[in-house]
Structure prediction request, 531 residues.
Amino acid sequence: MSVKNAMMCKQMTGKIVPIKIMSKTIAVRKSSGTVIEISQDISESLVKIWGFDRSWIGMINEEANTIEGVAGFGFKASEMKTCYSITADSQNPACLAYMQKKGVINQPIADRPKTFDLWLKKLGIQSYGYFPILKGRKVFGVVGAFYHTNRVLKKGDAEILFSALEQTAVALENAQLHEKIKLSEKRYHALFESMNIGLAVIDHEQRICSVNQTFENLSGYSREALIDKMTLNQFLSGESQKRNEMIRGMNQSPQFWECHFVNKKGLVKHVHMTVTRMANSSNRLVSLIDISKQKELERRVNRSEELASIGELSAGIAHEIRNPLVAITTSVNLLKDEPQLSDEGQQLLDIVKEESDHLAVIVDDFLKYTRPKKPSFQKENINSLLRDVVQKLKDCNSRKANWMEHYDDDLPELLIDRYQIRQVITNLLLNGLDAIQDGGVLAIHSQKVKHGGMYQVLILISDSGIGIPKEELPKIFQPFYSTKEKGTGMGLAICKRIISEHDGEIHVESKPGKRTTFSVILPIQKSNRKE
Prediction:
């Protein structure tokens, strides 16, 4: 009796040791292993520790309703990746183990599918068993264990193995959750990076923790320069009180603003900013949509509507002013012919005549601005136009200027209104001549540039005159603004209006006492204009 007990104890010990080793293997992989890594470890343990000749593990694909081989030991790669379709009438032992949630051991030959029986004979398998990897009622996969020899998989061995696989189920469940989290993070990161919206994650102190490519482009800084080194506050423009209120408001969620965003180069962008509290975190997700073009379009539409109203009003005012001006001018001409008119009277009439003419010019310029003539677009050689304007000014202007000219001969023809663009260039050059002393430099330059993602023609007109004070620069394109004693203040306003009608841009830079440069940008690309 004691001998029999000793043998039973030895058999039990032999079965417990593999379970312990298998448990340690699972424990190592449990926290960080992938589904395939854990499955491969179990497959190897079944052969090297449990003593099976081959092993196989298939995972359940619930979407496809299949069992797909992911690991094995003693099989070729092509044999290991066997896939079984799960159907209600399937007699495949792997499918039966899944559906019945219990082990299937050495089916009678009559019950085996013929393809499976041929597979067994081909590999020389004498005994086999398939066991579900169960946790509760959920099946994660199926394990196959095989003998080549006459050894038979017994029911008792199967029960011990079945128990050991419960730990495998826990490890596989953790691995699947871990892989789902990693996949979710990968998808989130791909979405985060691909969004055409500036995205940044900030902490409770507004320090930047993460950004996407669009935010990098918007800010002008690399993510290395942004993350943990800069705050969102550094990019927000506007009154300090308003900015502080915005920052404090981020403690609530969600928050929406339209504000100004200043990038590395100092360029101000009008943005729509949304700040949202992130789940289970004190961090915030900041999204920035650049609406600068939309705002500029709104401004231009509003400006056009205002000018249309002003145009209607100005036509009536001009008519009312012109009629008295005609009477005044006619009366002055008649009075000047009076023989009894004294020299003093003659001088007074000259003043009236001069001021009347000046008022007539102001009215004409005002009408040109508020009721502009629609451009008549034709293909023109811009360099030919520039040379022509410069030559006429050289011939007609008494001021001795040191002219510097450089024209890019490779410029394509532009679709422009020749007379309107000529008016703009003439006005800018005359302003330059007025600003310089005799011998001063007046430069004109044309070239092809890439601006706003498209090729454009850039015309630079620069003078070495007295310059424009910084505080005056924002005003120079406004109607009626002039620093000249006899100026109407409409010249540059008309220039800006004409260039806008050509889908172009006009800018000015000035250094008082050194130089002033006007930049005119005209598009090369096709537009909706018709010749």
User: Anything to note?
Assistant: Residues 1-17 have pLDDT under 50 and may be disordered.
